[in-house]
Input
Amino acid sequence: MITAGVDVGAKYAKVVVLRDGQVVARAKALVGFDLLKSAAEVFEVALKDAGLSRGDIQRVVSTGMGRNAVVQKPPISAEEAVSEVVSAAAGAYNVVPTVKTVIDVGAEEGRGIKVEAGKVKDFVINERCAAGAGTFIEAMARALEVKVEDMGPLSLKSMNTIPMNAQCCVFAESEVVSLIHSKISKEDISKAIHDAIAGRISSMVLRVGVEKDVVLIGGVALDPGFKPPLEKELKANIIVPEYPEYVSSLGAAVMAAGLAR
Amino acid sequence: MRAHYGYKNGSGDYFIIVDTDKCNGCGKCVEACPFRVLEMVPNEFDIESNPMAAVKEEHRKKIKYSCAPCKPVAGVRELPCVLACQPKAIEHSW
Amino acid sequence: MAQTEVKTQEYWRWPEYRQTVSNVDWSNAKAITAGVDIGSVGSKAAVLVDGELYAFAAMRTGGVSEATAVKVTSWALEGTGLEMGKLHYVVGTGYGRVNVPFAKKTITEIACHARGAHYIYGPTVRTVLDIGGQDCKAIRCDDKGKVVSFLMNDKCAAGTGRGLEVFADLISVLIQELGKVSLNVDQEPPPVSNTCVIFAKAESLALLRQGWTKEKVAAAYHAAMADRIVDLLNRVGIEKDFVITGGVAKNTGIVTRLEKILKTKPLEPKMDPILAGALGAGLFARALYEKEQGLR
Output
């Protein structure tokens, strides 16, 4: 049984190919203006890695913001699209069967999902505001003149807590500039940035309630500076699985296998 | 006077509204709030300048997040501040 | 080593200015007062002689608000023969009102805007919409200028001058031209779907790549901003006469669209609407000074 999950996100398209319950290929790339084209390129790469063709795949399920762009459209020709809330739950359950709470933070949205035996019980979405998602960290990285991938390690070096007043991404950028002028270190500023976004995400997750095991997925989970303030706010241990940015596409692939059976 | 504290952003409208004509300055809402979002301030808009309830400055810009823990997705939603207010002077727009 | 500094056009930087508006002789005045409105983006000082606007200045706030407070007030006084020491009473207001070190009192910007709006537009004002650099205020007042209802929206850049600054920079149009540019379309395009400035920016870039003209993209952004502002206004309700204050009142793109949606024409300002806060503060200063004098 070979299936694939295609997660067309706001920033990245992620593809996972699943063969008899094992992941045989993963691929991701930035999404351009043409969603189908970008997703198709990633899909081809994943197929090539797995040494397969579209014909070998019994079922493809898509998810993410751009999921409808690839349904019934070659070369992906996904048979079905599911919401990212459902695919995140399915994917998290697959890698951490004891999961009860999923926190999924992507480029443009943050989600808190209550899960029971892999099924979605409740969820809350923080959307349409850059300050509640990965875009915030990216924008702040630009203001700090630091690479996005360096933001996490920088923040972990800080021993201080500096509060950030601005909530809006646009205003926060100006605040970062004035913090730099006040000779606050980049480490401390990066920590303040991570504290700020963790504060926002955790308050939303509290709306669905926090129950062990808590699993963090999505692109922002790759940022090592994000987990510590999140754990502090939620007063809970957080599990970050391997390849957290692929968990939703994995969930879609798992659902494809379930449906095809 | 209806004082709206909060904001609107891409994801919705989040305002705590205090009706200062109804507010009797008792301060019960301030005590009831588990996250210390509210405070008593002198009413700068009136000659008498009686105390009235208001959202603290630092919480006005993040009221959605400050109040989120009192607004579970599932189950009964009982806002402690609204329950504590006898003259029904305080309301939430979301 | 020789260095060439390439001066790039800063589209978002609106021009600073001062003006003496009347030639009244202040030496006979009973009360020379000033209102200083330190906003997060712009700082304004209004000097009043016996309750009439005499001179003013408007400049960018920049980093340190205390220095700006002194600067903008001195600039307003430039060429008048008056010095800071001759001011009888100064009231501070705005976002940085605590940073007006020479102010005798600070008063909430809501009250100052309502008062200032009555001065600029007349006693029929009942609804004031203030669109500033970093926030948006909707104020309902009664016939005496007393505040009946207010809403302050100060978290999100979307309905503010700052959002327009970001946009001006994006499409390389001078901010003072932006409104006019947005009206230069045959047909109003649909508003951008994202209110968040960050996402609207990305959406606009995509539209530009699709071949949309600057005018069309500007129109789409202004349309979204106007929709958002109307939502806020509807929370407090709109009663005529309706007026707009703050720097963004000068953006014809926003004002025209608001008129269309609300089916109400805002009153024409007799003077620069950016001064509403400072004017109101200056008027409060006069009242407070006279009260003080009366007690003596």
